[in-house]
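Escalated from tier 1: zinc ion holo job.
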Amino acid sequence: MHRVVQLVDIENEILKLRLQGLNSDTDIRLWRGVGDLFKPKFDTHQTWQLTREQTPRVHWFNAVWFRGATPKYSVITWLAVHDRLATGARVQRWSPQTDAHCVLCSGHLETREHLYFSCSYSKKIWRDLTASLMGSRYTEVWSSILEILAENRRSSTDCFFSDMLSNALFIPYGEREMEENMEKLTRPRRLC
Ligand SMILES: [Zn+2]
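Tier 2 regenerated the structure:
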């Protein structure tokens, strides 16, 4: 017997149907699909479409999700767009005793903006990796970088360009994660 009332009701309905002739040939599992069509085969895409809350596509969609993108770079870029990276400033909001200084330079409050473009360490990485790639469009302004990435028209060249920029965006955060773990073991320590 189930403790959940709805499950008890469902079981009672099944029992009733069995008494009316339902047998193992007709009592089969069906998956709901688009248009309320029920099929025996499970379809991940259709189930995802039915269970998620659908909202209009954001203008920066192409900046993050594109053909040939490296998944871990896309996830970090996506978190950065939403300013949801576990930077010191954010972690300190729910854990006040946390040291919110940048672990890469130990000099400033570690926000998304600092981590990517104000920090002397990551600023150098960004410049060295992207200056020649971006040419006259070179920028260290987060919103401008996002706009450039969002221009991805999904050609091979655009996708390569976006993946390279995403890689450059990933490195400071990856370094930060590594450095934080190292710093826990070897405090005090400085990179620059
Ligand atoms: Zn820094």
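Strands lie at 31-32, 38-39.
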